[in-house]
Amino acid sequence: MNASFDPPHRILMGPGPSDVHPRVLAAMARSTIGHLDPAFVAIMDSVKAMLRYAFRTSNDVTFAISGPGSTGMEACFVNLLEPGEKAIVCVNGAFGGRMKENVERCGAVPVIVNDEWGRAVDPTKVATAIKANPDAKALAFVHAETSTGVRSEAAELCRMAQNAGMLTIVDVVTSLGGISVEVDGWGVDAAYGGSQKCLSCPPGLSPVTFGPRALARVKARKTKVQSWFLDLNLVTAYWGGEGNRTYHHTAPVNALFALHEALAMLREEGLDTAIARHAACHAELVEALAAIGLRLPIDSNIRLPQLNLVSIPDGVADAPIRKAMLDQFGLEIGGGLGSFAGKVWRIGLMGQSASRRHVALCAAALRAVLP
Amino acid sequence: MNASFDPPHRILMGPGPSDVHPRVLAAMARSTIGHLDPAFVAIMDSVKAMLRYAFRTSNDVTFAISGPGSTGMEACFVNLLEPGEKAIVCVNGAFGGRMKENVERCGAVPVIVNDEWGRAVDPTKVATAIKANPDAKALAFVHAETSTGVRSEAAELCRMAQNAGMLTIVDVVTSLGGISVEVDGWGVDAAYGGSQKCLSCPPGLSPVTFGPRALARVKARKTKVQSWFLDLNLVTAYWGGEGNRTYHHTAPVNALFALHEALAMLREEGLDTAIARHAACHAELVEALAAIGLRLPIDSNIRLPQLNLVSIPDGVADAPIRKAMLDQFGLEIGGGLGSFAGKVWRIGLMGQSASRRHVALCAAALRAVLP
Fold it and tell me: Which of A5, A67, A227 is opposite residue B105, by nearest beta carbon?
């Protein structure tokens, strides 16, 4: 029980975490320094600048919450909603459902726009909900649903919310770094991501960005933010401003070393190039799967290149195949969630796992283990 | 901005983080695996078992929250208090004050027992507060105040709460692994620690433990826990039970590799030996500081060996000395907080930083930079 351990060397092609580059692992293992060290403050500034690049925003308040993507989600809702306020929440998968939970736990009132799992959020339904609820304070939706591999039309949804004077809260956990995310271009007010998807960092950090309208809303609150840890007024005194930082909590220093390195790699490659790489690997995967008789159930025009649902052929068992992939090839793919459980596998091509090598190995391994 | 970076190699003798052993840094850099990988589930079980050892408890629900110590604190309050309920909160430093903030943000009502910064929580005052508020649901206090270097009488305070039928919520962030923490022996119902103090892990995780009375309270709640991320009903479905884990959030896999290694090292050394080492280093530090004319303002019978307040001599400036220590020796010590700001330094002897080497270097460096 108390001996050191050596985790198996996996190839991560599930819904996240994705493979982490040795450069990022090495960065994570650098000597810990203090969270108020002048050298660490410089790293924080650099992380903020590189996150602005990834989010395509000039928002000053762009940083990483010291927790997984769920904390980024919670940070958006607890700061931007007050008890009794309405928020329109689009649910077309597991993470939309989680947004609804968050709204309720803030004492706010979710107005749900439901779409079937596997479909994009329907802008017509959203328009109807906006019209019926002009007093709603925010529109919240998931850009890239990890549970279904579906992309929704973020630009259009944001435009509708903006015209109605509502804030937008957008989940870009699986999209950030893998497909185009245009925080400023779309007019997103608040967005949160995860470190362990297309940024290929170990899990544990949630990049977030808040625009001026969102910050004005936080300043105008009548009630205190219900989470001390996630209160933007407090967190930004540590992450914000230039130079002078006020202690709030102890930042996960080494995790931020890793994020710094992963973002540096993204800048070296270039965001457009990284996005094109995800698209190219997706095309190659589709072709390789077709060659062994596997098809993708999601419409190609809303499909996420970085997260591929693959229909499990009739008569093939789900879990034993995934276990065989893991045991025989050390290769992790994901199972289905919700209404897709047992019906699909989820194959991630995220960040470092979006490579021709990964595609070739995954297809070959599937061919070997399928009956 | 986007180049790799090399953090300076510091010696960490502030209030945390403490120095991290190369073995722990190496563990953190092992290949990331999936958070539902069978190999990872085994590591989680092992972390739970070793945390029980550190907390001296048999509580099944003993694990690490995926965030800094502040999230462990918040997890205790949001799960154990419901809106309108009373909690007695002892405030004798910065972290007691943070507890009060947490209680208020749960919509609960804090009854404050105030003691001067630098003094222990006064059991007589607590007895009075308990008598005056028999309807209070919990007594919350900080075992080891990081802001003042003071230890309070946890055993006595827990006994009083138990006799009154109140739960105890105890902050052991700075005590865990450095002085005796007896969760079962004292009858603590809920406690939270931090990875980056006497466990000498990088910051980012908060070990917690919840006893049967606390869990019964969570089960009996009439309202939902206000934080989705910290809801014990959901988190324990991932961390709890044997074998079968339900996805909740993506655990910070590499951070848990590091915690596993740090706990393995604690077990190898033995908790009693580690505690004795902290005490011995403290004694040596006191002597070394006396030799250069420095004194400790906190009474020796309530002093934390692992966090030492040192009075800044008259006419000596605070920040320039700390800067000189950092610039000339790469050695970090902490400044004072609250009423101690500018009046004391805080010298940490935590975990790996509790060594004769650290004591000798710190005293020599201080001697060199003091006017």
Answer: A227
**A268 neighbourhood in chain B, CB within 8 Å:** 2
Domain co-membership, B156 together with B234 = yes
Inter-chain touch B105–A46, beta carbons under 8 Å: no
Encoded tokens for B118: 């630098």
Whether B110 and B50 map to the same domain: the answer is yes
The helix-helix angle for A69-80 and A94-105 (nearest 10°) equals 40
Determine the pLDDT at residue A1. 47
Chain A positions in Cβ-Cβ contact with residue B27 (cut-off 8 Å): 4
The CATH number of the domain holding residue B310 is 3.90.1150.10
How far, in Å, CA of B204 to CA of B71, rounded?
10
Residues of chain B positioned with their CB less than 8 A from the CB of A33: 7-8, 10, 12, 332
Among the partner-chain residues B38, B225, B254, the one whose CB lies closest to the CB of A28 is B254
Cβ proximity of A293 and A71 under 8 Å: no
CA distance B262 to B257: 9
Which of B267, B289, B319 is at the close of a domain? B267
Contacts of B7 in chain A (CB under 8 A): 30-31, 33, 39-40, 43, 257
- Give pLDDT, residue B1: 47
- Residue B5's pLDDT is 85
Encode pLDDT of A335-354 as tens digits. 999 999 999 999 999 999 99
pTM score above 0.80: yes
Task: State how far residue B259 is from chain A, nearest Cα, in angstroms.
Answer: 11
Look at chain A and report how many structural domains it folds into.
2
Residue A17's contacts (CB-CB under 8 Å, 6 or more residues apart) are A196, A197, A202, A203, B32, B34, B35, B250, B253
Can you give the pLDDT at residue B32? Answer: 98
Nearest to B260 among A5, A102, A226 (CB): A5
**How many Cβ atoms are within 10 Å of A235's Cβ, its own excluded?**
23
Is residue A219 within a helix (H) or strand (E), and if so which, with residue range?
helix A212-219
Low-confidence ranges of chain A (pLDDT < 50): 1
Residue numbers of chain B with a pLDDT score lower than 50 = 1
- Domain CATH code at residue A48: 3.40.640.10
- Nearest CB partner across the interface for B250, out of A46, A69, A263: A69
- Calculate how close chain B gets to A260, using CA atoms only, in Å: 8
Mean residue pLDDT across chain A: 96
What number of other Cβ atoms are within 10 A of residue B272's Cβ? 9
Closest residue in chain A to residue B68, using alpha carbons only: A250
The Cα of A163 is separated from the nearest Cα of chain B by a number of Å equal to: 31
Res B242: pLDDT: 57
> Is residue B131 included in any domain, yes or no?
yes
Interchain pair B39, A8: CB under 8 A: yes
Distance set, CA B38 to CA A10, A323, B184 (Å): 12, 10, 30
Chain B contacts of A101, Cβ < 8 Å?
228
Is residue A250 domain-shared with residue A275, that is, in the same domain? no
Alpha-carbon distance values, A317 to A342, A343, A344, A368, B34 (Å):
8, 9, 10, 15, 21
Here the tokens at position A228 are 């001390």
Q: Give the HSE-up count for residue A224: Cα atoms under 13 Å, Cβ half-sphere.
A: 13
